Amino acid sequence: MVGPAICCVGLCREKKHSRPKVRKKNHSSRRKAISLHLRFLSIVEVVVETSYTRKDPGRRYFSCNNVDDGDSHIWKWWDVAIQEELRETQTQLRMVKDQFFESDQKVAKLDKIVGVLTKKTSVINYGLAKGVSVLVLVILVIVMGWKSFRGFKHQCQNSRRGWQLRPSLSARQSASYSSASAASAEAERTIREGPRNDWSKDEIKAVYDSPVLDILFHGAQVHRHVHNFREVQQCTLLSIKTGGCSEDCSYCPQSSRYDTGVKAQRLMSKDAVIVAAKKAKEAGSTRFCMGAAWRDTIGRKTNFKQILEYIKEIRGMGMEVCCTLGMIEKQQALELKKAGLTAYNHNLDTSREYYPNVITTRSYDERLETLEHVRDAGINVCSGGIIGLGEAEEDRVGLLHTLATLPSHPESVPINALLAVKGTPLEDQKPVEIWEMIRMIGTARIVMPKAMVRLSAGRVRFSMPEQALCFLAGANSIFTGEKLLTTPNNDFDADQLMFKTLGLTPKPPSFSEDDSESENCEKVASSH
Ligand code: SF4
């Protein structure tokens, strides 16, 4: 068969072989073989023949149609030509592979160059961004510096008015780490400007509604700014006249209106009271509080005189003395002061709005009047409330608002969690959760920074870690002893262990006339 464009030097060199006898093959088989040589052959007609020699019978070879003219023409064994072709193909493949590798290397180099260029561009951009940031920072520093200067001037003015900043913590420093909640803002303001009595209910509500951890944190900030955070006041409360009360306070087991199993008793003798006070002092209490289940002291001249004697005696023992005897008149307040009374407790219990749901036998204003008599007599005011009475959160805010807007904040603010007593109208109330207590305590600490905030009734239900959170939020006073009037209290040994574990120290008594930061008194789950 005639092939297309074929002849090559290599094939021609094979001419030295003797020409074998040939038998022409059919077209298709020869075309296939010849196609392998396309790249090597010049233009000549090539055919595939078959050898019939004795030495190579049936072996195929390449030749051309002009082979018989006696000139030099192509000739080569077909299998040899195929092997050469394969070798050549392998060589070509290697070359292609080498070229590919070379290209790959070049691409890698290009990649590297692009990377370096990108980095340089980033550095330039970063430099630009940094420059802009520094510029913004400088502007901020100038603005803040100006504000700080104005704030410092303001603090100096406050210092002259008696509100001293502790050097360990400036409001601005503490605020820089804080969030933008109302608890944060008001705590900063309290630290900067000191206590104030012009709180709006909305402002207190905003603090109260802040995230509880924010209240905890900023309550702690205010607490540490104003008080020695390790000192916790230990008070002992003794019921010197138990039960048989004419009032209808719906949380109180001492009301004669409810069947609670509490028996009415007469006023305790002086000896019994003094023995109890000595025992309390030996146990570490620095304040002794006496409670009597009365509506008021009017018409109880004999008992009142006895109580004045108790006060003198206990004060003579080096203890602070507190009473909670119900409503008192101006004259009685003066007599109590003269006897040496440190503080008088009279709780508001709840908000003015919710109050009629709890007590109907005396009004909110009568309570405020008693507080006024106490304040006017120069006795420290102890007044707080109870949560868990079924009130709304607005009522808790309302209670704090009333206390925080009194002409002077109470020196002590007891925060009680209701201990529901069987037989009282509130016997089925759900127990107060620790987070509710922390919210109340922290808010009280922020809005009344100088007050002793007392973790009072209901403490027995809280574990040591839960109480620790209350101390962190700003509580710095507790009642110790087996009972709080008629309800159970924390075990003495457990309290000792808690003080040791938390690194707390008992707050020493204070008898300074104008020491308004350390006054205290309590009225637990009963309020007069
Ligand atoms: S809280 Fe005080 S006033 Fe009210 S019922 Fe009890 S003892 Fe009486």
UniProtKB/TrEMBL annotation:
Its cofactor is [2Fe-2S] cluster; [4Fe-4S] cluster. Its EC number is 2.8.1.6. InterPro entries: Aldolase_TIM, BATS_dom, Biotin_synth/BioAB, Biotin_synthase, Elp3/MiaA/NifB-like_rSAM, rSAM, rSAM_sf. Keywords: 2Fe-2S, 4Fe-4S, Biotin biosynthesis, Iron, Iron-sulfur, Membrane, Metal-binding, S-adenosyl-L-methionine, Transferase, Transmembrane, Transmembrane helix. One of its GO terms (molecular function) is 4 iron, 4 sulfur cluster binding. Residues 505-528 are annotated as: Disordered. Pathway: Cofactor biosynthesis; biotin biosynthesis; biotin from 7,8-diaminononanoate: step 2/2. The chain crosses the membrane at residues 127-146. Signal peptide: none annotated. Residues 230-459 form the Radical SAM core domain. One of its GO terms (biological process) is biotin biosynthetic process. PANTHER family: BIOTIN SYNTHASE (PTHR22976), BIOTIN SYNTHASE, MITOCHONDRIAL (PTHR22976:SF2). Belongs to the radical SAM superfamily. Biotin synthase family. This is biotin synthase.
